[in-house]
Amino acid sequence: MKFPCRLDKFVSHLAQIPRSKAKAEIKQKQITVNGEVATAFDHPINQTDVVLLCDEPLEYLGKRYFMLNKPVGYVCANADELHPTVFDLLDEPNMKDFHVAGRLDIDTTGLVLITNDGEWSHKITSPKHNKFKTYLVETQEPLTEQALDQLRHGVQLHNEKELTRPAIAEALASYSLRLSISEGKYHQVKRMLAAVNNKVIELHREKIANIELDSQLASGEYRQLTQSESKL
Ligand code: URA
Fold it and tell me: In the prediction, which pLDDT does 59 show?
């Protein structure tokens, strides 16, 4: 939300009611701003103003950042008709403007970042900013040195003009590797493994830029990012 903000918009946003209902509350003199009854729909509101609706404070909670350990079976979307979404796992007030910064597939687990800060998520997801995402990958076929080298160098994905950017690929065992990539193309890791004649069996995201999945978070749990984590 940008400040100064119109009163009706502020009330609608924070009380999660339609703008028409917010206007009705203003008309009925149910809203005070810094102790004075407000009557104008476009009364300008700043971040420090104290706004009460029926004597209850409407608080602007500002920019917020969360990390979630996503389980299998949840989709990274604000709403879905078939499946539970990652937002079903969050119990936080005023989540209307929140979005996922870098989605995972329904069958991928691990680090998901959720925020209401669009500029911040752009920095995470835009390939221009070159932020690495690190995945643990279990494969169907054994990994060969040649395949690892191809992943490091860049592979040709189906329906893409250019090779993938150089990646960091570290073999952990015959059927598992740690892969860090700085792009986020659709199903990128699965397509990269397919491009070297292999198949992803399990995929788990461990890290995005400087933010590592907290090992204290069980599957389905979340916490707010610390200030240093959200600095990027
Ligand atoms: N790459 C994929 O293929 N799937 C994900 O969920 C994330 C990266």
Answer: 83
Low-confidence ranges of the chain (pLDDT < 70): none
Residue 209 Cα to ligand 1 midpoint, Å, equals 16
Residue nearest to atom 7 of ligand 1 (CA): 104
Shortest-distance atom of ligand 1 to CA 205: 7
Q: What is the CATH number of domain 65-224?
A: 3.30.2350.10
Could you tell me where the DSSP H helices lie in 16-157? 19-27, 118-125, 145-153
Residue carrying the six token digits 């040649």: 146
The pLDDT, as a whole number, for residue 71 is 98
Q: What is the model's pLDDT at position 80?
A: 96
The structural domains of the chain, with segments of one domain joined by +, span: 5-58, 65-224
Q: For residues 147 and 141, is the Cβ–Cβ distance under 8 A?
A: no
The finding on whether 111 has its CB within 6 A of some atom of ligand 1 is no
Catalytic residue, chosen from 80, 97, 105, 214, is 105
CATH architecture of 5-58: Roll (3.10)
How high is the pLDDT of residue 13?
A: 87
- pLDDT value, residue 117: 94
Q: Is the C-beta atom of 189 inside 6 A of ligand 1?
A: yes
